[in-house]
Amino acid sequence: MTISPISPDLKPLPPRTLADVRDQVAQEIAARMVNKAELLDGVKISVMMTFSKRDDVGFLQQIAKAIKDSSIPDFLFVVATTGPPVSSNPALYTSLVIGSTLLTSAKFIGRVHGVQNEPTFYCIISVKEIGYTSGYDEAALWDVVRKSALRPIDPLVPPPGSQGVDKLLLEVRAKLQRLKPTEAHEELREPEVGAPTFLVDIRPAAQRDQEGGITGSLVIERNVLEWKFDPRSASRLNIADRYDLRIIVFCQDGDASSLAAYSLQRLGLLNATDMIGGYRAWRDARLPIDIPIRTARSALSLS
């Protein structure tokens, strides 16, 4: 075996410093993130978790610079590593970073210790114990970048699939056999009915105190209505033990009651309906009501 002599022209490579190694690692992380990035609404997004470095802030700045130097037009990358908290710095930065910072604070509520913002293209967020929560932290960061990269919608344009409340009321009322106040009154006075029938007042207490009520009606405020009448609910009324109940809902003017009655129908109470015109129409029809007793103070406040 013959070994050729080493040429005197060859010079040994200069010794690599720790800074050289850190720069190489930062370049490799940046290249990996760029190559594996997802494209969402024209924005490249990526998330990577790394081990702790002795100088996390400086290391993250190296990665950020390497990513920026790769000449990607629009991007939002998150590199997560552990390290000491950073101090807060209120400098301004781009809209993508603003959105992702706010979402990160919401996702990691109680864990964000500080934010160091740069006026150009990145910020550093200090999150307590990042990476220690198995499965959650990385998934949460991906959710942050995906939501932040979505193009903002015009706040004045209704989202697809939405509808105005007037159209919603029309659709709901098409599923109800609504009653006029006189019809509801006659039904309640029937000596024999096929199912237990109840008139239900869903108005708030202040409105009942101001306007009066209907003798014999059940007072169930709107925010607990479904729980009180769902036979499957642990909070149901004693009378709500069957699905054939005849529930006639009323509010002040007959709008909220339609939505409430339809909600009861969706629970399986198919006989639920509401009263056209609400309490105001009942009162205008001169049907029996409870007259609110006003004190001298309340009468004075109305004068």
Could you walk me through the main structural features you see in this protein, from its secondary elements to its overall organization?
By secondary structure, the chain is an alpha/beta fold. It folds into two domains: 20-149, no CATH class; 166-302, Oxidized Rhodanese, domain 1 (3-Layer(aba) Sandwich). 38% of the residues lie in helices and 14% in strands. It has helices spanning 18-35, 56-69, 95-107, 136-149, 165-173, 181-189, 205-211, 225-229, 256-266, 278-284, 296-302; strands at residues 38-40, 43-49, 75-80, 112-117, 123-127, 197-201, 218-219, 246-250, 273-274. The strands form three sheets. A four-stranded parallel β-sheet has the order 7-6-8-9, with helices on both faces. The protein has a three-stranded mixed β-sheet with strand order 1-2-3, sandwiched between helices. Helix 1 (18-35) packs across helix 2 (56-69) and helix 3 (95-107) packs antiparallel against helix 4 (136-149). The protein is rod-shaped and about 120 Å long. The termini are far apart. Residues 88-93 and 294-303 have low confidence and may be disordered. It holds the Pfam family Rhodanese.
